[in-house]
Specification:
single chain, about 725 residues, mainly alpha, 25 helices, about 0% strand, flat
Length: about 725
């Protein structure tokens, strides 16, 4: 509702009556207010309403400030009352604390007395535990004491008792004892007793085992009672069975005293090595008798027989067909199979008996008891035993001493095999290669690593013998002298064929041909070199014909054998055979038309020097007159007669085994016709229009060759 104008004017008049002049600050504030509300200055009503609203907000803010000031006053009053109450509570707590002070002292005294009682009880318990620990862990039963004192190892029951006693002793000595306990008289006495028993039993055990080693080493090798043709080595199973019951004691000794333990394998290898030496020599004596086919007689007689046979000339027949003789491969395989079984059995025994495959944990389990405390770790090997520290190395060293005579005996036997039969080194090489480089033998037992390494050394020796044999054969081929009246295949080629055929038969089942491939390539090169040397030899026959035949023969032989490593040689033989055939044809065809061929070669030389074709006939030496004189010397009948003579000569010196005459005669026909056409072409080019022509035609030549071929069939 709008106010009346009279009221508004009245209020304005009252305002004017109380008007006061503004100060500078008020003026500045008014100006800022006017600037702030500048958009509303044009509308006085909106400006007045805005100022009214702001004034109302300021009034409300003043009222809230007044009310808040009253609340703060009340809060301060409440805080003062709370502080007074806190002071009263503190006074009460102080009184209570004074009352409880005496109770706290009494409780502290009671706590100290309980702690002392608990410590006394704990000490008594620990003392009892230590006493029980020492009395039980350092106690050795009377049975164990008696067994260790006697050291009786003569029966299986006694061995078992000593083993249990030794393990119990090891367990007692392995008990961890505080250094201060060792000062106790009872403990020191017990430890001295243990050490005395240990040394006494160690001595008894070592003496007993050493005596067994000596008895086994001095035993005699069995006599040769096997049938002829078999090679059998005696078994050491009984010797191993006699020693295996002592395996736990060996583990105990290795754990308790490594120095004494590592001396026993050396004693074993020295004593048993003598037995193995006698047995190995007997084994190779069997093999040599089997190889020679003798049933009786000494080794010296066998050797003399082999030496006598080596002095005899060796032909193409093989001594393997002699009744009673053994095949080198079969005998050597028997020997290697027996050695494999012998070495494998011995290696397994050594690894089990001397605990050479055990690590430290397994050795503790096998050689010491764990009752009543943790076993101590095995002592470190002393410096003198470091070469034996690795199981494989220790086994190899013992086997090397045991079988010290094996490698020399095997090498000597290989020499006998190499000399006993022609090219025996091939059979030796195949057998050893299969044994070393591939799965050989039917035994299910794991192979002996020692024998494998030894056979590797022997294989190198066999390869050396094989290379010497090949070198000798190559030298014989290269230095072989060819007779001047040579006809047919050279002897070196026959030797090469025999070697290849024999070696392929020997290596038929072998997968290791590296050495053979190298040898065959080497021999083939020597044969090719020997054939090539014919060009400088003083032969009464045409060298190209002999070389053509021999290379052709080698090519046919290599095609039949189909040997991968000789493929390049086969292609080379074919190529060189073709080359020498061309040379022989070219050389031979000069005879029927020699002067005519010389004449036209001169014509071609003139043309090559730049003489024009139409001017050749004006050369004095190559005039038309000279050409007619040369042509007159070669009528058709003379040419046919010359070709017949050439055919007879070729047939005479060409070996019939190769059947090269038809091929060679056909090549001559083609070459002769080509030569004729070349002559005709030169006549047409250089002597055109003269009417000069040869006395025979191509058809005549074909009839000549056909007639000669038909008449000699």
């Amino acid at each position: 509702m709008q106010r009346p104008r009279e009221d508004w004017m009245a209020e304005l008049q009252e305002g004017l009556d109380v008007f006061q002049e503004m100060t500078l600050e008020e003026a500045v504030d008014v100006l800022e207010l006017m600037e702030e509300h500048e958009p509303l200055q044009n509308n006085s009503m909106a400006f007045a309403e805005q100022l009214g609203r702001e004034l109302q907000e300021l009034d409300e803010a003043n009222l809230q400030a007044i009310i808040l000031e009253q609340r703060v006053t009340q809060l301060i009053s409440s805080i003062d009352e709370a502080l007074a109450e806190v002071a009263r509570v503190e006074q009460t707590l102080q009184v209570c604390d004074e009352l409880l002070g005496g109770v706290k002292q009494q409780m502290d005294h009671i706590h100290r007395e309980n702690s002392l009682l608990h410590r006394v009880a704990s000490n008594r318990t620990r003392l009892m535990d230590e006493i029980l620990f020492l009395t039980t862990q350092l106690h050795l039963s009377r049975e164990h004491l008696a067994a260790l004192s006697r050291g009786d190892l003569s029966s299986p029951g006694a061995v078992g008792a000593c083993t249990a006693a030794a393990q119990a002793l090891s367990s007692c000595m392995a008990v961890p004892i505080h250094p201060s306990y060792r000062k106790l008289q009872a403990v020191a006495k017990q430890l001295i007793l243990f050490e005395t028993l240990k040394k006494k039993f160690e001595k008894s055990f070592i003496n007993h085992v050493t005596n067994i080693f000596k008895l086994q080493g001095n035993s005699q090798a069995p006599a040769l009672g096997h049938p002829l043709g078999t090679v059998v080595a005696p078994s050491h199973g009984p010797h191993h069975e006699e020693l295996l019951p002592y395996t736990p004691l060996m583990a105990w000794l290795r754990n308790i005293n490594p120095v004494l333990f590592w001396h026993l394998p050396k004693v074993y290898s020295q004593n048993l090595g003598r037995l193995y030496e006698r047995e190995i020599k007997a084994l190779f004596e069997q093999a040599e008798l089997t190889l020679s086919g003798r049933r009786k007689g000494s080794l010296q007689e066998t050797w003399e027989k082999l030496m006598g046979r080596r002095k005899q000339p060796q032909g193409r027949e093989s001594q393997e067909d002699t009744p009673g003789r053994g095949d080198i491969s079969r005998v050597l395989e028997q020997v290697l199979r027996e050695l494999q079984a012998l070495c494998t059995s011995e290696q397994q025994f050594l690894q089990e008996f001397f605990c050479l495959r055990c690590d430290s944990v397994e050795l503790q389990v096998r050689g010491s008891a764990t009752k009543g405390g943790e076993p101590r770790a095995p002592p470190e090997d002393p410096p003198c035993t470091k070469p034996w520290s690795q199981p494989e190395e220790a086994t190899t060293k013992v086997l090397s001493v045991l079988f010290s005579c094996l490698e020399p005996e095997l090498g000597a036997f290989l020499d006998i095999c190499n000399k006993a039969q022609p090219r025996g080194c091939l059979r030796v090489l195949v057998t050893l290669s299969d044994a070393v480089l591939g799965p050989w033998g039917s035994s299910s037992a794991p192979p002996s690593s020692f024998l494998h390494a030894l056979l590797g050394n022997v294989l190198l020796l066999a390869k050396g013998n094989f290379h010497k044999c090949i070198g000798t054969l190559c030298k014989e081929m290269e230095e072989s002298k060819t007779p001047s009246k040579m006809r047919g295949i050279l002897p070196c080629i026959s030797s090469f064929q025999e070697f290849v055929a024999f070696s392929e038969e020997v290596f038929q089942t072998s997968q290791h041909r590296e050495e053979l491939d190298k040898a065959q390539l080497r021999l083939a090169s020597s044969v090719f070199s020997s054939i090539s040397s014919l060009s400088s030899a003083n032969l009464k026959v045409n060298a190209d014909m002999v070389m053509m035949e021999n290379f052709h023969h080698i090519h046919n032989f290599l095609c039949q054998k189909n040997i991968p490593c000789l493929e390049d040689k086969k292609r080379e033989a074919k190529q060189r055979s073709s080359e020498h055939m061309e040379k022989y044809v070219t050389t031979s065809l000069r005879q029927p038309l020699e002067r005519l061929q010389d004449f036209f070669e001169g014509v071609k030389a003139c043309l090559d020097e730049g003489v024009k074709e139409e001017e050749v006939s004006f050369q004095l030496a190559y005039s038309k007159h000279e050409l007619r004189k040369v042509i007159e010397k070669y009528p058709g009948k003379e040419v046919k007669r010359a070709l017949e003579s050439l055919y007879r000569t070729t047939h005479k010196y060409l070996s019939p085994e190769e059947n090269l005459l038809p091929v060679l005669w056909k090549a001559m026909e083609q070459e002769f016709i080509q030569q004729y056409r070349e002559f005709e072409e030169l006549i047409q080019r250089c002597y055109a229009g003269t009417g000069i022509a040869l006395d025979f035609t191509v058809e005549d030549l074909l009839s000549y060759f056909n007639s000669i071929t038909t008449s000699n069939m």
